[in-house]
Every structure is written in structure tokens, then in C-alpha cells.
Amino acid sequence: MSANSAAIHALRKAGKDFSWEATPRLPYKEEGAAPFKAISRQTLFSDPRMAGELRYFEIAPGGYSTLERHAHMHGVVVLRGGGQCLIGTAVHTIKPHDLVTIEPWTWHQFRADTTTPLGFLCLVNAERDRPLMPNEEELAALRRHPAVREFLDGG
Amino acid sequence: MSANSAAIHALRKAGKDFSWEATPRLPYKEEGAAPFKAISRQTLFSDPRMAGELRYFEIAPGGYSTLERHAHMHGVVVLRGGGQCLIGTAVHTIKPHDLVTIEPWTWHQFRADTTTPLGFLCLVNAERDRPLMPNEEELAALRRHPAVREFLDGG
Fold first, then answer.
1. Catalytic annotation on A85?
2. Banded model confidence at residue B1, pLDDT cuts 50, 70, 90
3. What is the rounded CA–CA span in Å between residue B37 and residue B153?
4. For A8, which DSSP code?
5. Contact B101/A12, CB-based, under 8 Å?
6. Looking at residue B22, what DSSP letter applies?
7. In Å, how far are A140, A153, B106 from A146, measured between CA atoms?
8. How far is CA B56 from CA A34, A90, A133, B65, in A?
9. Chain A stretch 74-103, residues whose beta carbon is closer than 8 A to a beta carbon of chain B
């Protein structure tokens, strides 16, 4: 047992379908806290002695993460399947091992393809601010970009 | 261009063989600084606004990283191929998507199989101490474990 009373496993073997030993599949966020669909979260590395955390998110076919922004950054490594992400006002198609950098205060949302899941690692600071969702005005401004509107409406 | 004068790419597409756009393959360490063999480093995420860094290391068949320890921790996600790692006095066989946690001051070394490379992501604090290599006494103590001796001698 470690000082922080959680057992530290030197090795957690990967199982089927992006599961890992001693690494529960959790809800993405508290239900009702924000709009999202069909997405789970596994915390791969989080320790008080590490300044960064690494999480694995998986979005089921047709699902999406919350459209949000915040002061902290994200570093994303796609691991599974395919989909699209909105970064600022650009929509990118992403596939395994592509890298996505989300700079501070940049709107972002991930969306899985309709036929395949989208799984990705996300690096984030352990100490971070809470995400903000767009207000009506901000959302209207985003939707004035045709590619963004198409993405927001489901691709 | 960002404030820190390096271009930030929102998307860096994965290329062949675990290469990425705008992400050079670098030497693992300065040549001659420590014992290692046939290993490269690609820094996937490193930014003054992020407290953690994510690097991709790839060890060619038969190669190995430096045997070392330090105060900072590592969180490792295997991405490619296979091999073994020494963590403390335990030797683990590792394959893609296995997770390895290296706690502070734990001896560790990675070794690729003789017929396949070993590629892995490594999460680390941006601010960290320098690794130490074992002295003669520490190395002798490690080598008293038969499995460790076998690993150190090349598996």
C-alpha cells in the first residue's frame, strides 16, 4: 500500500477492448452536469506525486464529449477507432495515434463516428480549473461557421 | 506562433511506424552519458503551460534503456511490440496497452524483445530531478536476484 492508501500496481495488464486491471470504467462526468453522450472515462495515471494525469476516454459510436473550454490544456493521443474533433473553429478527422493539442480557452469537442468508437488518451494538469460551456452568444458565434455547425449538428 | 515561439499544431497526424508530423525523432540521451542501446525519443507533449510531459520512446529489437532511478515517477503505456521491464526487483513481460507505474526511487529498465521493437508512452513531471545510476554495491545487490541478473544480462 502506498502512502496515499491506494494500492500501487507496478504493472496493470491490458485486457480486451481497452480495459485494464485495477482501472475501473467510470462515468465521463456526473449525469446531468453537462451535455454529452455515450462516453466513459478510465483514469490510467493519477497520483499526488505526479503533476500530470493521463486518462482514457472512450466514446461509443454516435456519442460525443461536452463542448467546453478552460484555462488548462489537453494533450490527446488517439488510440482507437475514429471520429472528429472541433478545436476552436476547425473540425479535424482523427484516427489512431494522431495527436491533438488543445490550447487554453479553446472550444473543443470530440465526436465518434457513427459506426466505430473513438478512444483516446488525454494528458492534463492534476491541478486545473473547471470547464465552461458556451453561452447563447458564444454558441451562435460558433454556429456561424458552416463546418462547425455541421459538426455540432452531428456531422 | 505561440507565446513561447514554437508553433503549436492543433493536429499532428500519425505517420508510418510511430512517426508524427512536426515531432522529430531524437536521441534518447546524450551519447556516452549513460549505458543504453538502440532507443529513440519523440516528445509528444511538452509545454510550459502543462505540468506533465508525454514522450514516446522506441527501443529497437535487442536494445534497452538505462538502468536508473530518481525521485520523480513515470507512468508508462506500451504502444508497440513487446519486451520486458525491470521495476524494483521484479521483471515483467509487457505488450501493447499494458500500464507500468514506476514509483519514486525505484530501479527501472526497459528491454525490447530480440525480434520486435518496444514502443511506449511515458508520462513524467515537467520539473524533475536527474536520474541516478546504480553504484557497484547497488548493482551487486540487484544481481543477487536471479531473475534480475538474467534480465540485466539480456534476458
1. no
2. very low
3. 13
4. P
5. yes
6. T
7. 12, 11, 53
8. 33, 27, 33, 13
9. 75, 77-79, 87-88, 90, 92, 94-103
- Subunit contact A98:B11, Cβ cutoff 8 A: yes
Contact A60/B at CB under 8 A: no
> Containing H/E element for B6?
none
| B44, A75 contact by CB (below 8 A) | yes
Proportion of chain A in helix, strand, coil states, percent, rounded to 5: 10, 45, 45
What pLDDT was estimated at residue B5? 42
What gap in Å lies between CA B81 and CA B79, rounded to an integer?
7
Give the pLDDT mean for A46-59: 98
Cell of A141: 458565434
Chain B nearest CA to A4, separation (Å): 13
Confidence of residue B124 (pLDDT cuts 50, 70, 90): very high
* Residues 6 or more apart in contact with residue B58 via CB below 8 angstroms: B18, B39, B40, B42, B80, B117, B118, B119, B120
Instruction: Please compute the mean of the pLDDT values over residues A53-59 and round it to a whole number.
Output: 98
Strand-pairing partners, residue A125, are A52
Residue B118 has pLDDT above 60, yes or no: yes
From residue A13, give the alpha-carbon distance in Å to each of A32, A127, B76, B97: 33, 28, 12, 7
Residue A29 in contact with partner chain B when CB distance is under 8 A: no
Decide if B131 touches A, using CB distance below 8 A: no
Cα gap A52→B126, rounded to integer Å: 9
What's the rounded Cα separation, in Å, for the pair B80 and B68?
Answer: 22
The alpha-carbon gap from B30 to the nearest alpha carbon of chain A, in Å, equals 25
- The Cα A131–Cα A106 span in angstroms is 11
Pairwise CB contact (< 8 Å): A50 & B125: yes
Count the alpha carbons within 13 Å of B16 in the hemisphere toward its beta carbon: 0
pLDDT, chain B, mean = 94
Interchain proximity B98–A73, CB inside 8 Å = no
